[in-house]
Amino acid sequence: MPKHKVHSDTQSALADVVFDGMTIMSGGFGLSGNPEKLIAGLLAIGVKDLTVISNNCGADGFGLWTLLNNGQIRKMISSYIGENKLFADLYLAGKLELELNPQGTLAERIRAGGAGIPAFYTKTGVGTVVAEGKPVEQFDGESYVRETWLRADLSIVKAWKADPEGNLVYRRTARNFNPNMATAGRITIAEVEEIVPAGALDPDHVHTPGIYVDRVIQGSAYEKRIEFRTTRVRGEAQG
pTM of this prediction? Predict the structure, then answer.
């Protein structure tokens, strides 16, 4: 059993793999499936001049927003700015580089990076600013823009369960970008809610095989955040 994969805390997991100017993939979609303890570790270490690949950049006071607010991120490769006012303000002020991708294209670029496919073609973005400066070719009479893979020096992902070998299981929509990112990092560190004994995970239920995961840390006190709470008055029961 590779005991070295399990680290006691984020600092020991991150200490010898982070460096200024590196590229980091960070899982999550909105407030779901974010490696929040590892992000806090990056904040504490103070690594800077980062290029971060993530669907969005956290939310006010949470997740990647904290790195952005601390001036540690130089460039974001994302698909959604949304309600993140800090993200928008920094970009509009010229203090943050942004490579904006259609969401499906971002997901496929990450998947391609993990699969060793350096480029692929898609119709999404043809004829828009997304295609500017990129080759466009014809297939079966239709135009397709060429997109390139995304890979990272470090992928940080959030899973539900892991075993000591680094096999990961995600929970429902918290899976999102995490499995693809786990395959596309030179080093992948997973934070999980529970580490189970070796052999406890049904192989058919493993979403990310341990071969892709270099280190695992167990987090605690996760708050299941809701970005927008939408409610309605419950109607009277119909008899």
Answer: 0.90
